[in-house]
Amino acid sequence: MTAHMQRRKGLQTWMAAQAMPGSSSSPHAISRIQAFASTASGGLGSYTLLQVETRSGITGYGECSPLSQTDVQALNSLLGRPAHSYEPLTAMAPAPARGGLNMALLDIVGKITKAPVYRVLGGPTRFKARAVARLTGSTDIELQQDMQRQSSLGVKAFLVPVDKPPAPNQGSHFVKLHVQRLQALKAAMPDGDFAFEATNELSAGDASSLATAIESMRPLWFDEPCPVTNLDTIRKVSYETVVPLGFGRTIEDASTFQDLLREGLIDLVRPDMQVHGISGVCRIASMAETYYTAVAPRHEAGPITIAAALHAAAAMPNFFILQIPRSGPGSAVIRDGFFELPKGPGLGVTVDTKQWERNRIA
Amino acid sequence: MNRRHFLGAAAAAVTFAGSKAVNASPESIAVEADPCGCSPFFAQAIRRQNDVDMFKDVNTNLRVTDMKVFGVSLTPDSDRPYVFVKIETNQGIVGWGEATLEGKAAAAMSCVQDFREFIVGSDPMQVEHHWQSMYVHSFYRAGPVIGSAISGIDQALWDIRGKALGVPVYQLLGGPFEERGVRGYYHAENARTDEDLAKLRETALSTGVSCFKVGLPDQAYEWIETSAKIDKAVKHMARYREKLGDDIDIAVDFHAKTSPSVASILVKEVEPLHLLWVEEPCPPENVEAMHRISRRSTTPIATGERLVAAFGCRELIEKGVVDILQTDINHVGGITGLRKVASMANFSGISMAPHACEGPIGGLATLHVDSSMPNFLVQEICSFVEPGDKENVWAEWFGFAPMRMVDGKFPLPQKPGIGFELTEAALAKYPFGGSKPMARVFQTDGSVGEW
């Protein structure tokens, strides 16, 4: 992060704090914030459940990145502030808590207004949201079996894993292996559509080789083909192929999306729900709209996050697709390849925190 | 004195000194503008000049006596009623122009009348001056509504200029580059079967028509597209090339239905078809987004029908984003606006394929500008120039048959002005049916799609 980016980020937090009184006479002032660690601790998909209560007796839930005790203490500085001020409060929260706090506060605003969050935000812009299923399996046969299993939901779009390369730079074998993988899946489901998911682990050169090799197969997009470090390395991929590129996994500062959009290096904006929250993702979507670019929110946590992502999808004009969680759709309903919108009020997800008690972060 | 008082006083003093300078001119009378209510301590210092005829020593005796605007709906529920502007003068010369704005007819008509004070009482010959005044003094510069209104008035002024000077407008513009007229093209979308296309090719060859335009096969495209829809679009385009042959130019209008991501794939895949151009591969506000498409393919890119004035085209031209510009004489700012875009595009080696898909007045007016462009490629004209049940409006209004291409070219109008006479009575049969929305397209999930 450059010095001016750091300064800009610092200013945002500072300005939010200036805008807010220390305590509020609002009936919806925050009276209590509790945090619980998810059971899947440590690895991908672990998160912290936030429970925010107001003086008026409304409870909102969110899922954020794993929090430390220090983070939770810092969050408690928000007590007494009005819960409906979700923008300044999100900016004032410690970074790992922001996305989840934003969800919880919007959940509260929705419950205050007795409306689903997407209606609070000006939606719905659509009545359903297209789903994409992530395929898992260690062999091509297993991937095909998983595709057949998941296609029972009516899903026709699939994320296909790219193998973690054994060394930074790969050759013909690696490219051919993945071309064959895609060909086999396509042969097994001719009306299916596929996106490669490389989780940041390819060099730009390898990403470009692979993208060029699959271009004629018209994949939906290539997710995280290479790291977002030097924009000029991505430029190589973007100039050498017209396969649409998706980025977002590692992007914490929304201005990095602006850099990618301005330089014409991104086709699918993939902001993470835990990092940016509902309103943050919608703000990024507003910017992407001016580049005629779509958004596919990324989420790795639990049932609240998938609901939050669906509310965001139904609040923005340029949503494209949302992945089905690894653990299955849960309380979300998928029909003919599309998620139904959650009903609300608020996020429309109920949580029984009794079973979370032993994971409390105090 | 508190801080606010001090700032207010200083600001007022500066502005007051400025307005004194205006007052010092004996030629002008400054009058107070209406107060806008944001300056509580001091009187409003903004002034406007009254209508003093500063040009009385250099102008003609010709004066505009009235300006009228007509909404003309060929059918009661037409989604694109024509908007015609009529300007009358003290010497009996009448000029007509077209300000048609699809889906926003009432707004364009109203905006024409907003310019009444700019035009009535003035010398219609100083068209460039009036154009500047309408554009600059509108403060907000031009969007499509102001652009269309200016276009209609500008055409009517050029019509008067030509009639007053006794020559067709193209001669005032320094044309023609081509005596035989202006190369045109037709749409080929209604030719669906192989037999249709074979017949179209035959007709084209026998009549000298050298170019057709088609659209994409699906009504809407999403931000990222499935392989099936991309395949369908590519095959659709390839079929036209296959059936129409290599010796007929084919342009494909994406109509901004596609995102830059989808368009990039399509224009690259159809490179071997050597299309004349792909049009509006994405919407026009973001020039760099369109640049991303054009620099990743050899397929020529065209755009411009939604752009207003040379100001609206400047970035596309200077960055070399497109190969062809298509500004529309009824939106870009009339004859004056279209001529300026063409001139600037020519400096960058960019060709002109102007759009004129509204009524016959704009269709006739654009031919004059086309014939004076060094970088003219081909003209799109709708307005029932092809045989059909609505072509009789030409005879009803102008007393002559619809203009038809001869050997692939629209002959130049040869009468003074734009080249026709029209009476209000002739339009009475087609009263204004009100504004109607253009096609509204929605995606599978109900979200808004580009038409």
Structure class of chain B: alpha/beta
Q: Which consecutive residue ranges of chain B, at least 5 long each, have pLDDT under 50?
A: 1-28
Query: What is the strand content of chain A?
Result: 5-15%
The largest β sheet of chain B comes out as:
10 strands, mixed
Mean pLDDT of chain A: 92
N- to C-terminal separation of chain B? 60 Å
Work out the oligomeric state of the chains in this entry: heterodimer
Specify the number of helices of chain B. 15
User: How many helical elements of chain A?
Assistant: 12
Protein described:
The complex is a heterodimer of chains A (362) and B (451). Chain A is of the alpha/beta class and 362 residues long. Helices cover 38% and strands 15% of the residues of chain A. Chain A has 12 helices and 13 strands. Chain A has helices at residues 3-19, 69-75, 86-92, 98-113, 117-120, 140-150, 172-188, 204-214, 231-240, 254-262, 273-289, 303-313; strands at residues 30-37, 48-54, 59-64, 128-134, 157-161, 193-197, 222-223, 245-247, 268-269, 294-295, 322-323, 334-335, 338-340. In chain A, helix 6 (140-150) links the parallel strand 4 (128-134) and strand 5. The model of chain A has no long low-confidence stretch (mean pLDDT 92). In chain B, helix 11 packs parallel to helix 12 and helix 12 (334-347) runs parallel beside helix 13 (360-370). Chain B is built from 15 helices and 17 strands. With 451 residues, chain B is α/β, with parallel strands linked by helices. Chain B has helices at 3-24, 105-114, 116-119, 127-136, 144-165, 169-172, 194-207, 227-244, 260-269, 287-294, 309-318, 334-347, 360-370, 392-398, 424-427, and strands spanning 30-32, 47-49, 64-72, 82-89, 94-98, 182-187, 211-215, 249-253, 277-279, 301-303, 324-325, 351-352, 355-356, 379-381, 409-410, 441-442, 448-449.
